[in-house]
Amino acid sequence: MEEKNERITKLVWYFTIFSILGLVIETLYCYITCNGKIESRKGLLIGPFCPIYGIGAIVIIALLNRYKKKPVKLFILGTILGAIIEYTLSYALEAMYGNRFWDYSYLNLSINGRISLIYSVFWGALSIIIIDYVKPAIDHFINKIKPKIGKKIEIGLTIFFIVDALLTVVAVYTYTNIAQEKYTKSLSQVSDIGEQQTTNQANEDAQIDEKESTNENIQTNTQVEETENTQTEEAEDIQNNDAINIFYNQIMPIIFPNIRIKGQNGQEIWARDIMGRFSKHIKNYGKTILESFFLGLYKVILLPTT
Fold it and tell me: Which of 78, 161, 273, 303 has the fewest CB atoms inside 10 Å of its own CB, making it the most exposed?
């Protein structure tokens, strides 16, 4: 029983530490390959965590630790296992959130955009690093922590990750729904404008006297007034929900910049681009981003946007 508890204890620490290290790796990789660009690679709403690395490391340690003294075999099995982990998690995350967090379709030798050869090989190399170097260092660190203190930390971390995961699911689900709704609305507005232009052209061609021209001008002025009134109402609505709009229009695109939604023809569209069109209307009336972030979380829990 004691040995089982020790294994569970190590799982919590493995997940935490490898999730943090994974985020560091992803951030550095993005910085190197994207000309110095710093972009979030987080997988959870709160905290510096990339959980795919935490989960991947736990599976690798559980299944491949026995091959510690066989680096070639460890590399090959790590490559295969890493591909399976990444492919499985890609499906799981898409089922949870309704969209993909990564897409390797732009790379050669990829399978359905979910895995690619180069990243699978990366998992093979990472397996050797995890088993031979990182795991022993973490085990040494864990053994130095007093059992009573360690248990409290582990319980706290477990509760934190459960809450963080639930908040992430709600926030991402709501964020993608808002982006999808705004995208659909923008298509409708474009369609309405096209129809209006066609109508106006027909009216111009059919003009036979000054009276019809006058009536058209009156109609146009009325439409302009209605549009201005609508924009004013939208702006007031945004101002009245300032914190939650800051959260979804400004903070979520930064935390999860790679989330996509489905376009009109099934193509994937960056949610951040859709939300970015509306962020200029948001005003932060004396609130700090941090205040808006936590107020937004509060409203996400109690007042989820539909």
Answer: 303
> What pTM was computed for the model?
0.72
Task: pLDDT band for 295, please (50, 70, 90 cuts).
Answer: low
265 sits in the region (left: phi over 0; alpha: psi -120 to 50; else beta) called: alpha
List pLDDT tens digits, range 114-124. Answer: 899 999 999 99
Domain ends where: 83, 113, 144?
144
Percentage of residues of the chain with pLDDT beyond 70: 68
The reply to whether 117 and 177 lie within a common domain is: no
**Domain membership of residue 134 as a residue range:** 2-144
Residue 289 lies in a domain: yes
What confidence tens digit (pLDDT) does each residue in 144-154 have? 989 889 889 99
